[in-house]
């Protein structure tokens, strides 16, 4: 999944949902889209890593060009 976050709103370029809204006070995102039932999930964001369970499995997503992003690229053989 790839997405862009601007403020409290995010658009999803690749994934089942079309977008999500972030509630920073509650650390939740509300996923919306034509191909999914709208739902709210908890997330965490620390040191450039956005972690969320949107499909029954928790995944980490990396802030582009962060140290965590660059380390993940190396770990998975992309750099």
Give the key terms.
globular
Written account of the structure:
It is a single chain. This protein is mostly beta strands and 79 residues long. The chain has one domain (2-75). 11% of the residues lie in helices and 49% in strands. The protein has a 7-stranded antiparallel sheet. A hairpin with a 4-residue loop joins strand 2 and strand 3.
What secondary-structure arrangement, pairings included, does this model have?
Blueprint: E1 2-6, E2 9-14, E3 19-23, E4 28-32, E5 39-46, E6 49-53, E7 58-62, H1 67-75
Antiparallel strand pairs: 1-2, 2-3, 3-4, 4-5, 5-6, 6-7
Helix content: 10-25%
Average pLDDT, rounded to a whole number, is: 87
Q: Briefly note the structural class of the backbone.
A: mainly beta
Total separate domains: 1
Q: What general form does the structure show?
A: globular
In short:
With 79 residues, this protein is mainly beta. The protein has one helix spanning 67-75; strands at 2-6, 9-14, 19-23, 28-32, 39-46, 49-53, 58-62. A seven-stranded antiparallel beta sheet has the order 1-2-3-4-5-6-7.
